[in-house]
């Protein structure tokens, strides 16, 4: 995706850091390739069903742990019952690099970037028209930061506050290659993706309908 001028890293809210274009084109291509392989190995991404029985419009799969509303398991309990795919060490190293870069811009993201020890990744695929409602990432038992990699169509990332789903919030357009790290005062804030931006596909990653979002976290869970 061509840009006339590079975008600078930004700290839109305390504890939230956006690293524009942090993933170079070759790494975006590799991440898409890996996501397709993980999808094949796990029987394909699935649409989790919320407690009211409604399916999410986002399809996902887990690495290291399987997530379904609202818990982690080592097995795909709401699917075929198979084991969750292993968490790739290289993805953990990549996420740690992002945390270090983010903490250099906003130290409130984490007191100790070197202590970040991720053990789970959620691969989310947003097809055309998919969105994710406002929610908190509260199923982990430690307060380590969250790292979110975006590839493909630009998505609007809405970031609010910890008191509830309503305003105030900020809308952050995340382009292909952008990375968001949030932690510290923003760790339990509500956030979501209300829409994708049509016509913003990334030609570098080829035929990818929609947006891939890979969210890396540290659960603090045993087992």
Mean pLDDT: 94
Quaternary form: single chain
Number of domains: 1
- Category from helices, strands and their pairing: alpha+beta
**What would you report as the Rg, rounded to the nearest angstrom?**
16 Å
Strand residue content:
25-35%
Helix share, percent: 10-25%
Write the layout of secondary structure elements.
Blueprint: E1 10-13, E2 16-19, H1 25-41, E3 59-63, E4 66-68, E5 71-73, H2 89-105, E6 120-126, E7 132-135, E8 146-152, E9 155-159, E10 170-174, E11 179-182, E12 191-196, E13 211-217
Antiparallel strand pairs: 1-2, 2-11, 3-6, 4-5, 6-13, 7-12, 8-11, 8-13, 9-10, 9-12
What are the defining features of this structure?
223 residues, alpha+beta, Jelly Rolls, four-stranded antiparallel beta sheet, 29% strand, globular, disordered N terminus
């Amino acid at each position: 995706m061509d840009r006339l001028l590079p975008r600078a890293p930004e700290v839109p809210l305390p504890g939230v850091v956006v690293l524009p274009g942090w993933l170079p084109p070759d790494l975006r291509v590799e991440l898409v390739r890996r996501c397709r392989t993980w999808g094949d190995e796990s029987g394909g991404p699935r649409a989790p069903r919320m407690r009211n029985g409604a399916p999410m419009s986002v399809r996902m799969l887990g690495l290291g742990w399987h997530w379904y509303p609202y818990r982690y398991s080592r097995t795909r309990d709401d699917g075929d019952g198979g084991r969750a795919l292993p968490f790739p060490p290289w993805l953990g190293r990549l996420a740690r690099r992002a945390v270090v870069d983010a903490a250099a811009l906003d130290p409130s993201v984490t007191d100790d970037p070197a202590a970040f020890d991720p053990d789970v990744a959620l691969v989310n695929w947003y097809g055309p028209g998919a969105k994710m409602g406002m929610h908190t990432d509260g199923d982990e038992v430690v307060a380590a930061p969250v790292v979110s990699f975006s590839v493909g169509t630009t998505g609007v990332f809405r970031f609010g506050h910890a008191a509830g789903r309503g305003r105030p919030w900020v809308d952050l357009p995340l382009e292909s290659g952008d990375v968001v790290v949030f932690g510290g005062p923003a760790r339990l804030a509500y956030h979501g993706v209300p829409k994708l931006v049509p016509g913003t596909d990334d030609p570098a990653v080829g035929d990818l309908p929609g947006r891939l979002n890979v969210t890396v976290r540290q659960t603090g869970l045993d087992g």
